[in-house]
Write a structure and sequence with these properties.
Length: 201
């Protein structure tokens, strides 16, 4: 009886560990852009001079020598795709995941790109973490600061859906931008990305 109890407890521990790792099990067709601290070579920096580097088992930025945002821009462009990302940000981090960037040398929503927001303390809380900036607001407000989170972004034609930690936080029909690179923004506060995978549709 004691052995059975010990076995049951061990199974529960294993199950909890597996559950804690999340349920994302990629099938065939996924391409890895970032895996732990590997993958920096898949991107080129744009904008201000942030200290993008491989550290702490992730791709990290937490400082810049110039004002303004910095973006790591993927060397490859994507049209229709699913994107999976694991990120860590502090509560005051201003960051985001850009998709379908039009101008890799001048990345912003105003120059042409969709931005999935990572910014818990955005003064405009309609476009806080989990929103699609200036396209689809987020309600209720979700907080990502101080822990690891997941984004799943679906972009097919004009249909864009953002899922944060398994919850759909934004959905839009917007077909202004058809394709382009993916970007990771730094605009103050630490940002870490330890996994980024994309599957073209």
């Amino acid at each position: 009886m004691k052995k059975q109890l010990i076995g049951a407890v061990a199974l529960l521990i294993v199950a909890s560990i597996v559950a804690g790792c999340g349920q994302f099990l990629p099938s065939q067709g996924w391409v890895t852009l970032i895996d732990g601290d590997k993958g920096l070579e898949n991107f080129a920096p744009s904008g201000s001079d942030a200290n993008w580097r491989a550290a702490e088992g992730a791709i990290v930025a937490d400082k810049a020598t110039q004002k303004g945002s910095s973006t790591l821009v993927s060397k490859k462009s994507f049209k229709d795709f699913d994107l999976y990302t694991e990120f860590w940000a502090s509560s005051d981090t201003n960051s985001g995941i850009y998709i379908r960037i039009r101008d890799p040398k001048n990345v912003s929503t105003s120059t042409g790109a969709y931005e999935v927001q990572i910014w818990d303390k955005n003064p405009n809380q309609a476009y806080a973490t989990g929103s699609l900036v200036n396209v689809a607001s987020v309600n209720p407000i979700y907080k990502a600061g101080g822990r690891w989170n997941t984004f799943e972004i679906h972009a097919k034609g004009g249909d864009i859906t953002v899922t944060l930690n398994g919850v759909v936080t934004a959905h839009a029909r917007d077909d202004r931008f058809k394709d382009g690179p993916i970007g990771i923004q730094y605009n103050g506060g630490p940002i870490k990305v330890r996994k980024m995978m994309v599957k073209e549709l």
